[in-house]
Amino acid sequence: MARPGNKIIQAKLVLLGDMGTGKTSLVLRFVKGQFFDHQEPTIGAAFFTQILSVSEATVKFDIWDTAGQERYHSLAPMYYRGAAAAVVVYDISSMDTFIRAKKWVQELKKQGNPNLVMALVANKSDLEQNREVQTEEGEQFSQENGMFFIEASAKTSLNINELFYEIAIRLAKAN
Ligand code: GDP
Ligand code: MG
């Protein structure tokens, strides 16, 4: 809850990444604390809100999830418009999704907002036996692009709160 005197930031957050990387699962884990093994490919446009207090501010997240348009490897301008934060997701068990994540980052940069807080999430870190993308590869790419990097799992909930907490801190600093 908001503390008196604490600044309140309303922030639009968008999710990017290929279909099946776990975008919807990450959001549902963060917002509802739930996970589904057979997450339905998102039905309609999905919009979620969540409030997170960090010491610097209380952040009201307006989270935009895709409705499957990522299949066409691009999203409508209105999806990005006014976004303060973006989370690009890949699946550690699929090199293809990491290569595609790099394209999503390029797409993001084309939107031309230098203050955008960007995170790169290596999701499905529970699938260690099937790992195709090494931690260092994700780390290096995110460093080169000024992104925050974290390995996470919507399934086990590893690092989900940490992800949004770090984004909230960065938003508080940028606002
Ligand atoms: P989206 O298309 O990017 O929104 O991906 P979804 O959230 O629909 O997830 C696609 C599939 O991956 C679903 O079957 C999820 O249950 C599964 N999934 C999502 N996150 C994880 C994870 O962290 N670990 C594992 N093992 N599976 C996951
Ligand atoms: Mg989805």
Automatic annotation (TrEMBL):
Q: Which family does it belong to?
A: Belongs to the small GTPase superfamily. Rab family.
Biological process (GO) annotations? protein transport; vacuolar transport
Is this entry keyworded rRNA-binding?
no
Q: What topology does it adopt in the membrane?
A: Lipid-anchor
Residue stretches in coiled coil: 117-144
What is the recorded name of this protein?
A: Ras-related protein RHN1-like
**Organism per entry:** Nyssa sinensis
Looking at the UniProt record for this protein, which Gene Ontology cellular component terms does it annotate, in alphabetical order?
A: cytoplasm; endomembrane system
What superkingdom does the record give?
Eukaryota
**Keyword Protein transport on entry:** yes
Q: List, alphabetically, the Pfam families matched.
A: Ras
